[in-house]
């Protein structure tokens, strides 16, 4: 075998060693459980009011409230209150904010100080979805 073929095979072997775990992780996350997440602000961030919040979902179709569909729902933000248990109806008040039009962005007018935000997915009927990734809680400080 020539030296160049040996180097090519060696390079290919290293490429597979480095790339295959990433491909496997990508395959498992795309076929994995649904989850919701704050894309901004970051947990622990210091921000100004109004706080621009962006949200996302993985393996969950975010759509307007109404029809209940498997694998789909919409998002809610709980401000300075706990996330809800799966199966509970999300109330509509000053601390339970609904994004029933399928929104993935919001502006929150918050007073200065520390705040907790819980992002929670619910089905078309505003019933909190089950699953470990259906909530994400962050803490921010408004200056």
Can you put this structure into words, describing what you see?
The structure is a single chain. 20% of the residues lie in helices and 36% in strands. It folds into two domains: 1-32; 35-142, Sandwich (Immunoglobulin-like). Strands 2, 4, 5, 6, 8 and 9 form a six-stranded mixed sheet that branches. A three-stranded antiparallel sheet has the order 1-3-7, with no helix packed on it. The chain has one helix spanning 3-30, and strands at residues 35-40, 46-47, 51-58, 61-62, 72-79, 96-99, 105-108, 113-122, 135-142. The protein is built from one helix and nine strands; from the N terminus they run H-E-E-E-E-E-E-E-E-E. The protein has 143 residues and is α+β, with helices and mostly antiparallel strands.
Explain briefly what this protein structure is:
By secondary structure, this protein is α+β, with helices and mostly antiparallel strands. Helix content is about 20%, strand content about 35%. It is globular, with a radius of gyration of 21 Å.
């Amino acid at each position: 075998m020539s030296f160049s073929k040996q180097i090519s095979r060696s390079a290919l072997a290293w490429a597979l060693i480095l790339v295959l775990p990433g491909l496997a992780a990508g395959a498992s996350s795309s076929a994995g459980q649904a989850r919701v997440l704050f894309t901004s602000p970051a947990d622990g961030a210091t921000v100004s009011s109004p706080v621009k919040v962006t949200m996302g979902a993985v393996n969950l179709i975010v759509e307007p409230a109404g029809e209940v569909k498997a694998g789909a729902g919409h998002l809610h933000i709980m401000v300075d209150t706990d996330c809800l248990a799966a199966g509970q109806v999300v109330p509509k008040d000053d601390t339970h904010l609904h994004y029933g039009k399928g929104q993935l962005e919001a502006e929150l007018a918050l007073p200065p100080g520390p705040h907790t935000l819980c992002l929670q997915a619910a089905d078309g009927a505003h019933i909190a979805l089950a699953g470990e990734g259906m909530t994400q809680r962050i803490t921010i400080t408004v200056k």
